[in-house]
Design goal:
Arc Repressor Mutant, subunit A; single chain; 8 strands
Length: about 240
């Protein structure tokens, strides 16, 4: 029986260098001992380390069956593309694997879409409306926000009350653009209009470039078709494992 995605599971602050170390291990460029040492030095005890390792396992080291294909292609990009963007790859896996992470990203994207910033209180209020008024919801929302700030994809004021968008990060390679689009489609679970793909709230930190239609149409994992109104729609060719 296929396992369901964890509804609330991104419950740890994940530093970008930890994700990079996990990618090095998964790609064969490093031994698991390197990651273990990094995590041991960064955590106060074995229980905290174990919880962080669980998140890294789901992201890169031991992904669920339905996202193995996506993870494998992300690892290939990391290994083969010059200056591979770890923050882009880890964001893509996070939205595909963790609905909670994706919902925080969506809410921040929506709230900052007009003026470029929002309050953390607004984000917590929106998340509480969806997941309930409980300490776990607030704590895990903070973990997601703290991670996004560490990945340099979001800014937080010194007092922690205001979140501000950073200038959009250009996704550098066509392979990474295609892969990130596939991660987004896995998250939403349905095809999306090509023109609206880059404008999805969960994609707020990134710029996918001016030739998105060409890049997407040249992907082996994605398909572009026209609906009855002539709108170009993007979907996954193979839903299983993206």
């Amino acid at each position: 029986m296929q396992r369901k995605a964890p509804q609330i599971g991104f419950d740890r602050f994940i530093r970008l260098d930890w994700a990079a170390a996990a990618l090095r291990v998964r790609s064969g460029a490093a031994d698991i001992g390197e990651l273990d040492q990094i995590l041991t030095e960064a955590h106060a005890g074995p229980e905290a380390k174990k919880k962080t390792r669980t998140v890294l396992n789901r992201l890169w080291l031991e992904p669920r069956e339905e996202v193995v294909g996506l993870a494998d292609r992300g690892v290939e990009i990391f290994a083969k593309v010059s200056n591979a963007q770890v923050e882009v790859l880890t964001w893509g896996m996070a939205i595909a694997v963790y609905p909670f992470f994706a919902k925080v990203a969506e809410i921040v994207g929506r709230l900052t879409s007009i003026q470029g910033d929002c309050t953390t209180a607004e984000v917590h209020r929106r998340m509480a409306e969806i997941y309930g008024e409980r300490e776990g919801t607030r704590r895990m929302t903070n973990m997601v926000l703290q991670s996004q700030v560490d990945w340099s994809l979001l800014s937080k004021s010194e007092n922690g009350k205001t979140l501000t968008r950073k200038p959009s990060m250009a996704v550098q390679s066509p392979e990474t653009v295609q892969w990130l689009a596939a991660a987004l489609l896995m998250h939403v679970g349905r095809p999306l209009g090509l023109d609206g793909l880059a404008g999805q709230p969960t994609m707020f930190p990134f710029s996918l470039g001016d030739n998105l239609g060409y890049v997407i149409s040249s992907s082996d994992a994605l398909e572009v078709r026209a609906d009855s109104a002539g709108t170009r729609i993007v979907g996954l060719k193979d839903r299983e494992g993206a």
